[in-house]
Structure formats: structure tokens, C-alpha cells
Amino acid sequence: MSILTQLSQNFPQLDFKSNFSLSPQTYFKIGGQAEVYLELKERQQIIDVVNFCRNNDIKLTILGGASNVVVHDRGVSGLVLHLKITELIDLKKSTLDEQFPNDKKWLIQAQAGIKTSLLVKKVIDLGYSGLEYFLGIPGTLGGAVYNNAHYLKFLISEHISQVEIIDEQNKVKWISQKECNFSYDSSRFQKTQEMILTVEFALKKGNKEKSEQLVRQATKYRANTQPLGKPSSGCIFKNTPNTPQLKKLFPQFSDKQCVSAGFLIDQAGLKGVRVGDVEISKKHAAFFINQGKGTSTDLKKLVNLVKQRIKQQFNINLEEEIFYLS
Ligand SMILES: Cc1cc2nc3c(=O)[nH]c(=O)nc-3n(C[C@H](O)[C@H](O)[C@H](O)COP(=O)(O)OP(=O)(O)OC[C@H]3O[C@@H](n4cnc5c(N)ncnc54)[C@H](O)[C@@H]3O)c2cc1C
């Protein structure tokens, strides 16, 4: 029995689509079709579909805003579940616990499918502060937590108190910020099959004017440094830990823990290099741009070319920040 038949028979009320083109859903405009595709905004339906897939060995891929993924040209097998749950709840409750020992913080909860930028706007309107720098990050909150989204050295995880997940045994439960194993561009969710349902933030009471000033500052920085408005998946590579060799070559960064991947790619003279229709941005060398008919094959060739050159020139193994879906 096909996956579509299995799913449709069990969930006749849901609108499963077969051979659904994913490329238009993505920021990169790259990739083939989902074998089966479904958009869901009801929490219980999400839990039921995830349970059913796990119990019936149906491969499941979660899609948030699709701003940090590269979909394979051959498409994605199994079910692609596109999350659209967006509720935000102001708990109107404060905390003074171990995690925030010196600071009174206020708790809000947001569902994983809310757009990160919209969440930040709503939080500022509610009078809370802490998330301003994350306005302008494309995609959803689920994706931001999965990758521990960052603005310069600031990580979204610094403001998270707990996360509600569907674990690998299909149990819906809350786990603490500590249990999420957050670090730069990393979380436990990258190593598990868990699904992020809801995120709880602990935020300070803010000042709307000051918050809007921080938003303007971050927005200006992004506009000046990123090739916005062109199809991309953001930074393709993570920044790399600094090494004695890099400190010698670039003493201006000797007190920094990390060196920007974009800076190294630029230093290697690779800005503007192109494979097929995928090009290394001339504005920010860690961003690759789809100039029209880019494919995941072009992207992969360009990624390998960059990795080889950076290894040869700086003895650094660059790691991808994007996630490949197939
Ligand atoms: C122009 C541009 C600028 C960007 N700037 C930044 C930046 O400043 N800082 C930054 O950190 N990133 C940046 N990014 C990268 C990207 O926008 C972020 O990482 C974003 O948070 C990804 O969210 P998403 O919903 O689009 O995730 P997706 O691309 O949909 O998914 C990414 C991964 O997360 C998984 N996932 C998504 N939702 C869930 C969930 N609910 N449960 C479990 N797994 C899930 C997916 O399966 C996938 O593996 C930028 C991207 C672009 C295109």
C-alpha cells in the first residue's frame, strides 16, 4: 500500500498531497517533490500524524519556514509535514529559578510554527524584551530552536526556559533549556527524531521604544551585510573555531573564539564563484545565491569546492550550517 493511501485512509479529513513541488516553499527555490506533503496547524492532529508515521515506519520530515534547508533535486521521500501552528500565550507569570538566579523574568509560550519575526514583534507589543535581535531571521520558531538561531554572538537559546516536544517514544513532554544541549548553531534536536511543539521563553519587562531601536540596529546590520531579497538559505557554513594558524594569519581576530566562514571564503578569493546557477554571494561569502535554475547538485559541488579550498589554504574543515533534506 502506498504511503499516501495509508495516510489518507487513516486521516480522511486531512489534505495530503502527493508529488508536491517543494522548491517554491523554500527560500532557496531549489529541489524536487515531496512524496507526500501535508500542512497542519492543529496541535492534536500534528501529534496524531507524527504518532502514526512512527508506528507505521513512514519516513517523516518536518518543515518550518524552509529557510535553512536544501531539498534534494530528487525530492524528499515519505511524508513532509509543514508546520503551521502559531499560537502565542502570555503566561503573565514570573520566574526566579536556578536558570535565572539574579533576574526576575516573565514567561511566554509560542508554538513552533509561528514565524520568528512575528513572534518578536508580538513580544515587543506585549511589553517584553530580549528577542529584538532575532527579528529578521526568516523561518519559524521550530527551525530557530532546532539550529539555535543566532545574531552575531547572541543565541536564541539564552532566552528559552523550556521546550515542549514529541519524543522518540511519541510522548509529549516538556524538557528544560539545559536538556536541549544548546550551543552555537547546535541543539539536541539535530541528533534525535524529536519534534518541537512549543517553546517557553523567559523575558524581561521591556521598553517598547528601546526595543524598536534594537530591532532597527539589527535590521540595518543585516541589510548592510546580507544579500537579502535573493533566493538563498542564509549562511551555508558555520563560523569556525579560531586556531593558532588563523591567529597568526589574521591577528585582528586573535582575541576571538570564532572566525567567520564568510571572511575565510572571501580571503580565499572565492566571492562570485559559480557552479551552474548557484553563486557565492559577492556581498557575504558564506551565503550562496540561486541565480535562477540552481540545483542541489550545483550547490553540493560548490560546497565541496569551497571546503577543499579552505582546507588547503587554512587547514580548516568548514561545516555546513544548512540541513539537507532527501
Ligand atoms: C536571508 C537569510 C538570512 C538568515 N539569517 C540568519 C541569521 O541571522 N541567524 C540565523 O541563525 N539563521 C539565519 N538564517 C537561517 C535560517 O533562517 C534560520 O536558521 C531559521 O531559524 C530556520 O528556521 P526554519 O523554520 O526556516 O527552518 P527550516 O529550514 O524549515 O528547517 C531547518 C531544520 O529544522 C528542522 N525543524 C524545523 N522545525 C522543526 C520542529 N518544529 N521540530 C523539529 N525539527 C524542526 C527541519 O526538519 C530542518 O532540519 C537565514 C536564512 C536566510 C535565507
Number of strands: 20
Q: Class of the largest domain, according to the CATH hierarchy?
A: Alpha Beta
Under the CATH scheme, the architecture of the largest domain is 2-Layer Sandwich
Low-pLDDT runs of 5+ residues are: none
- Number of helices, counting only DSSP H or I runs of 4 residues or more: 8
Please state the structural category: alpha+beta
Average predicted local confidence, pLDDT: 96
| Basic shape | globular
CATH fold name of the largest domain = Uridine Diphospho-n-acetylenolpyruvylglucosamine Reductase, domain 3
- How many structural domains? 3
Order of helices and strands: HEEHEEEEEHEHEEEEEHEEHEHEEEHE
How many strands, what sense, and barrel or not for the largest sheet? 6 strands, antiparallel
Provide the β-strand percentage band.
25-35%
Helix content: 25-40%
| Rg from alpha-carbon coordinates | 21 Å
**Which ligands are bound?**
flavin-adenine dinucleotide
* First-to-last CA distance: 21 Å
Please provide a written account of the structure.
This protein is of the alpha+beta class. It has three domains: 3-83, 2-Layer Sandwich (Uridine Diphospho-n-acetylenolpyruvylglucosamine Reductase, domain 2), CATH 3.30.43.10; 88-212, Uridine Diphospho-n-acetylenolpyruvylglucosamine Reductase, domain 3, CATH 3.30.465; 227-325, UDP-N-acetylenolpyruvoylglucosamine reductase, C-terminal domain (Uridine Diphospho-n-acetylenolpyruvylglucosamine Reductase, domain 1, Alpha-Beta Complex). The chain is built from eight helices and 20 strands. The chain has helices at residues 3-10, 43-55, 116-126, 141-146, 208-225, 244-249, 261-267, 296-314, and strands at residues 17-21, 33-40, 60-63, 69-71, 76-83, 88-95, 105-111, 128-129, 150-151, 154-155, 160-166, 172-176, 195-205, 232-235, 240-241, 258-259, 274-275, 278-280, 287-290, 323-325. Strands 6, 7, 8, 11, 12 and 13 form a six-stranded antiparallel beta sheet that branches. A hairpin with a 6-residue loop joins strand 18 (278-280) and strand 19. The longest helix has 19 residues, at 296-314. The mean pLDDT is 96. It binds flavin-adenine dinucleotide. Flavin-adenine dinucleotide is lined by residues 27, 61-69, 83, 112, 116, 137-140, 142-144, 146-147, 149-151, 189, 195-196, 226, 228, 232-234, 323.
